[in-house]
Amino acid sequence: MEEKEKKKHRVKHSGPKAEKKRKRYLNELGIGDEENVRKRNPKAFTVQSAVRMARTFHRTQDLKTKKHHIPVVDRTPLEPPPVVVVVVGPPKVGKSTVIKCLIKNFTRQKLVEIRGPVTIVSGKKRRLTIIECGCDINTMIDLAKVADLVLMLIDASFGFEMETFEFLNICQVHGFPKIMGVLTHLDTFKNNKQLKKTKKKLKHRFWTEVYPGAKLFYLSGMVHGEYQKQEIHNLGRFISVMKFRPLTWQTSHPYVLADRMEELTNPEDVRINPKCDRKISLYGYLRGAHLKNKSQIHMPGVGDFTVSDVSFLPDPCALPEQQKKRSLNEKEKLVYAPLSGVGGIVYDKDAVYIDLGGSHAHEKEEEEVRPNHELVQSLISTHSAIDVKMASSKVSLFMDSRPLGSEDVGQEFVMPKEERQIDLKTGRVRRKALFEEEEKENDDVVSDDEEEAAASEDGSDGDDEDDAEEESDRELLGEKVPVGRAKRLKTELVKEEPVNELPAFADSDDDLEMSSEGEEGKTAPEENEMEEDDDEEEEEEDEQRTYENESSDSELEAASKRVAESKQYEINSEDTEMRPRISDHRLKRKAVLATDSGNCTAEEASESDVENFSLNEGDDEEGSHDELEVEESSRKGFPRTQAKKADGISQAKLKAIEDEDDDVENLLKEEEEYEEKIDFSADTTGALKWKEDLTQKAAQAFLRQQRSTPNLRKLVYGTAAEDEDHESEDAGDELGGLFRVSRPDKASKQKANALDCSKFLIEKPQDWNLEEVMSSIRDCFVTGKWEDDKDAAKLLEEDEELYGDFEDLETGVVHKGKRAAEGDESGSEEEEEEDGKMSKPEPEEEEKKQERLDKKRKLKEMFDAEYDEGDATYFDDLKEEMHKQAQLNRAEFEDQDDETRVQYEGFRPGMYVRIEIENVPCEFVLNFDPHYPIILGGLGNSEGNVGYVQLRLKKHRWYKKILKTRDPLILSLGWRRFQTIPMFYIEDHNGRHRLLKYTPQHMHCGATFWGPITPQGTGFLAVQSVSGTTPDFRIAATGVVLDLDKSITIVKKLKLTGFPFKIFKNTCFIKGMFNSQLEVAKFEGAAIRTVSGIRGQIKKALRAPVGAFRATFEDKLLMSDIVFVRTWYPVSIPTFYNPVTSLLKPAGEKDSWSGMKTTGQLRHERGIKLKQNKDSLYKPIVREKRHFNKLHIPKALQKALPFKNKPKNLEKKGKTPKDQWRPAVIREPHEKKISALLSALSTVNNYKIRKAKVKHREQLKEYLKVKQKEDEQKFKRQKEAKKKIYRILGQREKKRQMSSLKGSSKGEKSM
Amino acid sequence: DFEASFIRLIDKVTNGSRIEINQTGTSLYYQPGLLYGGSLEHECSPSRSIGYYLEGLLCLAPFMKHPLKIVLRGVTNDQVDPSVDVLKATALPLLKKFGIDGESLEIKINRRGMPPNGGGEIVFSCPVRKVLQPIQFTDPGKIKRIRGTAYSVRVSPQMANRMVESARSILNKFLPDIYIYTDHMKGASSGKSPGFGMCLTAETINGTILSAELASNPQGQGAAVLPEELGQNCAKLLLEEVYRGGCVDSTNQSLALLLMTLGQRDVSKVLLGPLSPYTIEFLRHLRSFFQIMFKIETKTPEEEHMGGEKVLMTCVGVGFSNLSKTIR
């Protein structure tokens, strides 16, 4: 028993232990190593089969090339916009918790409620915009289009839900962003094994959907309502190091995920008509491509708009500047979420919010510190940059210089707070209420920026106010400033005077710029004012101003010299540059104002302005109040200015200054004139109609114009683009009048008269016979002198020199004497230097070293180039080219400031932009809900048009129904979601597009609809409805755009039927197919067919019954035949295009948009039964038995037939005549008996015989069996016997042979 | 009259465009359609030469739905517009730089027609492209050869030779590699009016082609021109063009700029000679249509013997792609 208990030792065959043993064993044998195997047995590693090797090589190459993507030019900007992280998942899966945890992880701030996108700085080089995506299919579609990274939350305890798959499918269609799965609710599993199993299962399913190896995160349990810190940290790490592949649609279109919306409508308009179209501004990071001003955009869920204005703002969530340190400090971990009310820095060019700290992140909120205090501080030390201010986020600056009443300010404080605190639903209610109240309390307008906008929109009043203030400022500082400049102007003017016939366009324009620059400088005090506007009290502001003025006064007095003063001023201006940026248009407008007002005296201007103001605002209720303010300010301004002047007079030069100032004014006027002149000259150049005496001069002038750069630019684009800005902004503003160059008008005028011809004729050709003229282009020819770096001889020399130097390097000896022979120009120069610096050998040494290094580098480059050329493929070349282009793109405009850059290339992605849009439906504003994303998708040129679009479409395999032609379908294509009526078709072999009534079940088909033009290759998806929730899969079809056209090519079959009314042999007359001769004429020669399949052709129309014709067939028709012709009738596509305006729905109903209903739905709703055509009902087919007539063969034919085929129509036997009838036999009883007996006997006999037969057969069988056996035995015996005999015979034969051999050998021997 | 003809031409190459001209002919409403292309024929009005129509087509042809193959009939060479020869020699290489190439890109002159009656015929065919390549074309290089055509129709063939002689006499001072073809058209291919003229092209080592041309006065208008004089003047014009320089011929400046604008969203650069008034106007149109501004820099050649001042034009393309081209 005990013996049995013991287990036998089992030797390990696998596992590390066995491996070790094996190794040891092998080592003992001395053949242990892997490499040794190769050495030991080289044959095993040689090529076995060349073919197979070739194949494997081929395959690896295939796989390698398959991995390649088509290289694209990397157009990502240097400072990329934040990465859009979309958190998506079914409801109650923990989306907002994840977002909150992530934000907390990155910024150490806790957000209470997430609304709209949240932008955070996640690292030194990356920012994230996190946004939550609800289960509304509209939201899912929109966000899938802008997402860079999708966090797909999956409830592990439940498994995948339809939303997940829907979102995945949406993503697939609109370019596949990176997708990371996150499993939540893992703590609900009690059983560990179950958990593991579920994880694995979900992972594999996820992989099949996304790609094998897609990252799936597991968020196990919750701690205090949050996920575990470490896990979230890991998730954050993954997000912030993720790399993205650019998606085609996203990189080719600009788009903005708006994180803030402001209404700018004039409150008066709203009061008059609460349903009027609104003007709004939206804010967000620009992504994708460059955005141009005035371009078309689409807002999914709202509609198409034209951007009325774009401006870029300083980044509210900027990346840290210095990159030295490893991690971010607390200050740089910014969060920006205006819709959620965090970040606090709510400021822009015409609105200001002071954040009172809705979140506890900003404990530093100082209520006591009045902004004016801040202002003083900033005056004293204006070194603190805006960024710093932003970071501390105490004050946001108010850009508009309109003085604010205290009530206004109060309002302004309330508003954002309100927005922040009240939860979604109540907030909306409040909002509504506010808008309704507007009528009553007119000036307590909702948001101050609205008012601001209104003010600036009103144009005159806002500007006038500006004026009022500017006047004083101008008088204060402005006059003295341009002194130096004016002088310069004068000198330039003097220079120009000798050439006074020539239009001095260029220089004067420059002057203009300068002067405007000067005036820019003047805005310094204005800015101060602007800050003052932040103040709650007007008086304080005034005090401020006086203080400021006094200070400047004292400065003035102290500075006895102009120069000193100007210096001082420069300092000021520098300071102003440090200050927050003023949006450009304001600046310019001010410049305009200043120049304009320069013509009249300050007093006049201000007075007139006030008058204007009163006129404009007269009827307004606020008007009086504001007016008062302005008057006050202006009144205060006057004494000051007067005082100023007095000061000035005491100084010696003031008069002169004023004169000069006047000069400036005059100059300005002159410029105007000059400009016009130039335009005129340009006109004439265009027209080529020169006045004869002017010809030469003008030609010279033209050339002159082209000489200098800025002028050329101005020549082409008018006075830069600034003026246009003016015109657009201050349209109808009398102040813009001065600067209204109105290029287009002139251009058109010029165009009208000219002969448009691209030829550039020369007015005054140079005399090419002269030697010097000839020599001027001598070097343009190959025969001329070459540049140094391209001259062949030089190159050769250089090479030699290089070679020589190389030798030097190898030997490590530097030949001093050789330097002279090096022959390089620089070398010789150095030689000279050397002579000069004999006393200092060290720098020389250094130079030499440098030179050597240079040469080394050059050599290395050469070597690299040579070496790399070997394996450079087409792919690599292409990649290289793209890389070069990308670098060029980056480098080209790098050195320019943003303003000019924007003009050249548009707003580049990564900028924080503010986009103004007009004519937005009021519902958008009224029903605004921050939970729904607002996307501004830029449209390429001609993408705003509508036309016919052809698609390749396939019904989604998970969608349960099939789709019907002419039923409305909601498509998501490009940025848009819209309802349209597609027509399905299939392409026949001959390229015909045949209409289909329904989509095929599992096949692609074509579809055409009338809708927005979208580039080919764009993916789309279709849903039947976006409203409500269905348990089924909602995506009905997917596909791709194939073609765009203005005409349609779909046809449907139309059969025209007719009936023969007269039949000749193969010809017959057919009626009923057409209605007129003309119709017949159109179809002459068309192929026709009968139902029975006889083919024919239409020949010619007949006169008699209208529409009848003659036709020939390949066989004779019957009168009962139906003849038909197959024709193809083009189908018209209903021009129905209805954008899904889901964002306009009231809050809470945003997912209930319903457009046009399908006929099926309508019928179902109304209970209408379709009256079906009786003929198209399916009935059991009753086929009557067909009776054929007897075959009739003509006699002649019968005769000719062979007998076999002759019809054997034997004549019926006639009735046998009576005489041939035989009488029936009637037996006697006796005879009957006999016959019965006989039959019985015979039966017995028969039986006996049969029995005997059977027996005999059996016996025979037996016998045969026995016989067979015997035979077998006999055969065996015989075989045996034969064997014996043969053996004996064989032996005998052998013996005989042996004997004979022996005998022969014996014989030989004997012989 | 020629405008009407041009509108008709545009109508032919497009599909679905709407054109309305009011009774007095003072206002034109044009709703653009889709560029369709295909095989077409057009009778150009003889008041302008074919070059006028061809310039418009050159801008549009790469963006058709189907490759364009069009027969234009009218005046091939006149004094106002760039002649077909010049466009053939300069515009086509320019298109090639933008990636529009292939054997089907060509202009063939079947018949020459001089003003006033015309009677010339050309075939222009152009492939379609989806996107254009950006160009960096800032180094014109040095001129390596001069080619040209001296043509004469319905006049003595000796005229052409006389022109060639005189032109060579001037150009030979600069370059030995000069070859000017003489092209004498006879019979049916000589059009309806007599005339002669010549066009010269200078090709650099970097593939830049500069051109100049002159044509005789049309019959019955102005004084007769001596062929020698014409040849000399034409050669001088070429020298003037060389003096202006740039990578693109002055007639094609606008074409180059347009194609740069319509490129992908990449930076394109081109070096031009002084901008012609037409180009300046064109730049303004580009701004109003595409919201695009060019960065304009003046470049003065470092050495004095390199001709006049140049202008470096830089822009970022608008990312235009040919939407009408069908994909399969």
From TrEMBL, chain B:
KW Ribosomal protein (keyword) present: no
Keyword Nucleus: yes
Residue ranges constituting the RNA 3'-terminal phosphate cyclase insert domain according to the UniProt record: 138-242
GO CC term (a single one): nucleolus
GO MF term list: RNA endonuclease activity
Record domain RNA 3'-terminal phosphate cyclase: where: 2-296
Gene Ontology process terms (BP): endonucleolytic cleavage of tricistronic rRNA transcript (SSU-rRNA, 5.8S rRNA, LSU-rRNA)
Entry keyword set: Nucleus, Ribosome biogenesis
Location(s), subcellular: Nucleus, Nucleolus
Membership in a protein family: Belongs to the RNA 3'-terminal cyclase family. Type 2 subfamily.
Annotated protein name in UniProt: RCL1 protein
Organism: Chroicocephalus maculipennis
Gene from which the chain derives: Rcl1
